[in-house]
Design goal:
By secondary structure, the protein is mainly beta. 5% of the residues lie in helices and 55% in strands. Strands 1-2-3-4-5-6-7-8-9-10-11-12-13-14-15-16 form a 16-stranded antiparallel β-barrel. The N and C termini lie far apart (44 Å).
């Protein structure tokens, strides 16, 4: 427990000052998170549907290539008994195409309280995944299709000059007397400090992010060491806004950190870092990104594995130094309110190489298409609640 407390304190002091929007444009995959006063006593049917084909062609010694092709649906009834309170219950469904059954069926429950307009307190199913806005080396894009919805406690703060998202996702419950399980949770905090007036043509923002993944506890039944891994990132984001076909130009520079906080170390590296600059342009129809990654002994359990210094394919293989040149092209079109269609291509040129044949460059790439739908439908007004 001393290790865990150390991780909490380190996370707290590193990112205390100040929600980062996603590093790349993820608008089609984000949840609606605002409580409106005019919805008081209203009952809604909420549909959040994401249809994704995503193919990872990895030709390295870091990660296997794989394809995700399926449909995810969160459907629920959402009631606003108070002007600042929402209660929501329903079901989460996932079906991978080619499978004859649902690959994931889970109950959905969320209570969302907004004591002041800037602060939102959520318990139950979180506004998780890409809503947090982590950079890709800390949180990979397609993770929301691979793992169950995040559940726990979340505090979201939005103001003119500071956005923050603090949460704890309890990923594994350890029931007393149950053998063969480990307690596990994730603690995260994303922040964005806006230096200039957001209405200006030129903006300068400071992103600060922290993430702890913890496995094990005092009633661990697997007899494995307690593990706490910490990641953080800080940097600067400068952007220029335009009104024509070209809508935004920007530059982002991040420094990512990794530390193994565990008392008993089991990872190949105890600490590391990554330097991650990007430039981008956004238009009405497509976005272009060009980036670079220089990593040294960097590990991030939830991040895109192409940034990692350790192999998921071969247990004893590690690469202390990683160097990538990154190109991304996104097409995203809003058909109507809440309905999006899009396509993506991402290329990761591995400059140093990881294969035993000694090749110094490797082309690893991902591509996919998606259709997402997120709408709330008014059903009725209930006036009996006091």
């Amino acid at each position: 427990m001393r290790t865990l407390k150390k991780g909490w304190l380190l996370c707290f002091f590193l990112i205390l000052p100040g929600h980062l929007p996603a590093q790349y444009d993820q608008e089609a995959f984000l949840s609606k998170t605002v409580i409106r006063e005019e919805d008081h006593r209203s009952l809604y049917l909420s549909l959040d549907n994401q249809n994704l084909f995503w193919n990872n062609e990895f030709f390295n010694s870091i990660e296997y290539g794989y394809t995700l092709f399926g449909t995810l649906l969160n459907t629920s009834l959402q009631y606003f008994p108070l002007s600042n309170l929402a209660v929501e219950g329903g079901v989460h469904l996932l079906n991978y195409y080619g499978s004859s059954h649902f690959d994931r069926i889970m109950p959905l429950f969320r209570i969302h309280y907004q004591p002041i307009p800037q602060l939102n307190i959520i318990m139950g199913q979180l506004y998780g995944g890409l809503n947090h806005g982590f950079i890709e080396p800390l949180f990979k894009f397609d993770r929301f299709m691979e793992v169950p919805p995040e559940t726990g406690l979340q505090l979201r703060y939005r103001s003119e000059y500071w956005n923050s998202d603090f949460y704890i996702d309890w990923t594994q419950l350890l029931v007393p007397g149950i053998v063969g399980a480990n307690e596990a949770f994730t603690l995260g905090w994303t922040n964005e400090i806006k230096i200039l007036d957001p209405d200006r043509t030129f903006n300068l923002n400071l992103p600060l992010q922290g993430l702890i993944t913890h496995v094990g506890g005092p009633r661990d039944t697997l007899n494995k060491p307690v593990e706490s891994l910490f990641n953080a990132t800080f940097g600067a984001h400068a952007l220029w806004k335009f009104n024509g076909f070209l809508q935004e130009l920007g530059s982002m520079v991040y420094m990512a950190l990794y530390t193994d906080l565990s008392a008993q170390k089991t990872q190949k590296f105890n600490e590391g870092y990554g330097f991650y600059p990007n430039i981008y342009g956004k238009t009405r129809w497509f976005n272009i990104y060009l980036g670079y990654w220089r990593g040294h002994q960097f590990i991030s359990p939830l991040g895109n594995p192409v940034f990692s210094s350790v192999s998921n394919k071969y247990e004893d293989m590690a690469f202390a130094e990683r160097e990538l040149v990154i190109f991304k092209l996104y097409f995203n079109h809003c058909i109507s309110d809440g309905l999006y269609i899009g396509a993506r291509f991402e290329n990761f040129l591995d400059v140093r190489g990881t294969l035993p044949d000694g090749k110094k460059t490797e082309f690893n790439y991902s591509y996919g298409v998606y259709i997402t739908f997120n709408r709330d439908f008014f059903l009725t007004e209930i006036n009996r609640y006091k």
